[in-house]
């Protein structure tokens, strides 16, 4: 597993690019930033998500 840092202030589009570019399979996210993940196109992918 390779860790990729993501800026919590990314826009949904920036977050989608970061996750797609890195090939992320899992994401650890603080619940108050989960709305950004939900708004990104990456929501179509299946992630292992921890809150």
Main attributes of the structure:
globular, 12% strand, 51 residues, ligase, EC 6.2.1.3, alpha+beta, 2 helices, 33% helix, long-chain fatty acid-CoA ligase activity, two-stranded parallel ribbon
Describe this structure in words.
Strands 1-2 form a two-stranded parallel ribbon. The chain has one domain (12-50). The chain has 51 residues and is of the alpha+beta class. Helix content is 33%, strand content 12%. Helix 2 (34-39) links the parallel strand 1 (26-28) and strand 2 (48-50). The protein is built from two helices and two strands. It is globular and about 25 Å long. It has helices at 12-22, 34-39, and strands spanning 26-28, 48-50.
The low-confidence runs, each spanning 5 or more residues with pLDDT under 50, are none
- Estimate percent helicity: 25-40%
Structural class: alpha+beta
Question: What would you report as the Rg, rounded to the nearest angstrom?
Answer: 10 Å
Number of strands: 2
**What spatial order of strands do you see in the largest sheet?**
1-2
| Count of spatially separate domains | 1
Report the span from N to C terminus. 19 Å
Mean pLDDT: 81
